[in-house]
Amino acid sequence: MDLQQYKAEDFILNDSFVRYCLRSNEKDVLFWEDWLERYPHKQEEAAKAREWLFRLGLRITPDEKEAEFGKLKAAIAVADTPVKRISWKRITRIAAAVALPLAAATWWLATHRTAASKEDAKSYTLFKAGDSLRRHVMLADGSLVVLNAHSTLKVPANYNGQQRDLILEGEALFEVAKAEGKPFTVYTGNLQVQALGTAFKLRAYHYDEQAAVTLVEGKVRVAQETAVAELIPGEQLTTGKAHARFVKNKFDPEKEKAWRSGRLVFHNASPDEIAATLGYWYGINVKVITRKNKPIRFNGVFNNKPLNEVLAAVCFVNGLQSVTKNDTLFVQPISK
């Protein structure tokens, strides 16, 4: 069939177009980008097909495409949900700074207050990041927060008054605006991180065994129970979530730089590396299961892509599917 006669149904059943959507073959990517630029009247149908692919994508294989596409169309019809047009060239700018804070004993005694007591005393504005994308929050003082997926930030109504206190569940990057006499403090559980004019990253998802503070620039103070510490740029502090167990390490600045810019790279990644990278990138507990007689490796580069698109590529290339159970994402062989 002439490509100019293609409808969304035809695009999604074309192997070259699927490889283009998954960015798994450079030749196909170049071909379709050029073709769609030359025939803009087909961009809407192609966009529709791409949207359908990523709704369906985690189970799609060459042998199953016809049957699965039929299921997809039926599901869409039953749900009566219109397919939204997407712009696959849209690139969300994601930037942030990375670091984690420490605190001196005197500061701890002067500022120690639990997150629970603070919640009782104040009203909050709640910011949530979705299942697979980060969210940018600009605070009243000009500080920038980049919430990772599956994260929540609570901002008190009196934020930027005499002090700047925040409560975090999950992970976020903080670029802190300087404000003389207004300490910037982030609370997660019984851990407190204070920073003045700095950039840091704090991670404490509910499924993580440890909390982590990573400092890219500036200076931070970290306090937990009676333990206190200070970090310098390039240092990361990990600790227990319930009780202080401070351990300092160096971190890979290039890895954090890539995270901040939204550039996700897999280079000959093993199943364990895929799971660790997805968990680090999207704030979700991931387990990759493979057949013993079929080891897998994965290569790919993704710029500011949501989890479903990255998963679709990983699964399509390796004949896998994804299933979420009890807050854990399982990437596993396709059921027979």
Low-confidence stretches: 57-66, 75-121
> Overall pLDDT, averaged?
78
Helix content: 25-40%
How many discrete domains? 3
Beta percentage is 25-35%
Tally of contiguous helical segments: 10
- Describe the largest sheet: 13 strands, mixed
Number of strands: 18
Domain Protein FecR C-terminal: 263-330
Protein name: DUF4974 domain-containing protein
Domain FecR protein: 130-221
Pfam families: FecR (PF04773), FecR_C (PF16344)
Word description of this protein:
The protein is of the alpha+beta class and 336 residues long. It has three domains: 90 residues, no CATH class; 151 residues, Jelly Rolls (Sandwich), CATH 2.60.120.1440; 75 residues, Phage tail protein beta-alpha-beta fold. Helices cover 30% and strands 31% of the residues. The chain is built from ten helices and 18 strands. Strands 1, 2, 3, 4, 5, 6, 7, 8, 9, 10, 11, 12 and 13 form a 13-stranded mixed β-sheet that branches. Strands 15-18-17 form a three-stranded mixed β-sheet. A two-stranded antiparallel ribbon has the order 14-16. β4 and β5 form a beta hairpin. The longest helix is centred in the first third of the chain and has 15 residues. It is elongated. The chain starts with 7 loop residues before the first helix and ends with a strand. About 17% of the residues have low confidence. One of its GO terms (molecular function) is sigma factor antagonist activity. InterPro entries: FecR, FecR_C, Ferrdict_sens_TM. This is DUF4974 domain-containing protein.
